[in-house]
Amino acid sequence: MIYKGAKGKAWKAFSDYIRLRDCLKTTRTPDKCVCVTCKGIFFYNYIQAGHAIAGRNNSILLHPDIVHGQCKGCNMTGEYARYSIFMIKTYGQKKWEEFVILSKQTRPMKEWQWKEACEYWKQELRELCG
Fold first, then answer.
1. Which helix (H) or strand (E) segment is 68 a member of?
2. In the chain, is it the N or the C terminus that has fewer CB atoms within a 10 Å radius of its CB?
3. What is the model's pTM?
């Protein structure tokens, strides 16, 4: 996913955070991650921040509970059926339904909000790094 300007920088910071978070969570290392959908183990640079719900918009673009480390292959095909099973097991049916409803909402964001989001996710990433 390529975004320009402040939105692109916010996405980059968020994506870096998600990938490192899930590397540490699944393999306890910063350089390998278990894909949320196929369960394969991949190097960090083959992992992407994959969304559980297609058609993402600003309401879920930077939502850390809806985005997880996913290998490039699974992320390109979506693997939404497998992903939804993970989401329901992890968060429960009710929360999954709330995420789906949230995904249908629009959330306009100004440039300053993208800049704030970028700084927030950079800080979260720094905290993960120790």
1. strand 67-71
2. C
3. 0.93
Task: Give residue for tokens 């196929």.
Answer: 38
Domain count, the chain: 1
| 24 within a domain of the structure (yes/no) | yes
Q: Is residue 52 part of a domain?
A: yes
Identify the bridge partners of residue 32 per DSSP, sorted by sequence position.
43
Domain of residue 107 covers 5-116
Per-residue pLDDT, averaged over 74-94, amounts to 95
Q: What is the largest CA-CA distance in the chain?
A: 38
Classify residue 128: in a domain, yes or no. Answer: no
**CA–CA distance, 37 with 2 (Å, rounded to integer):** 22
In sequence order, the β-bridge partners of residue 49 are 69
Distance between CA 24 and CA 64 in Å, rounded? 15
Q: Which of 43, 96, 29 is nearest to 71 (CA)?
A: 43
Q: Give me the pLDDT at residue 45, please.
A: 95
Residue 59 inside a domain? The answer is yes
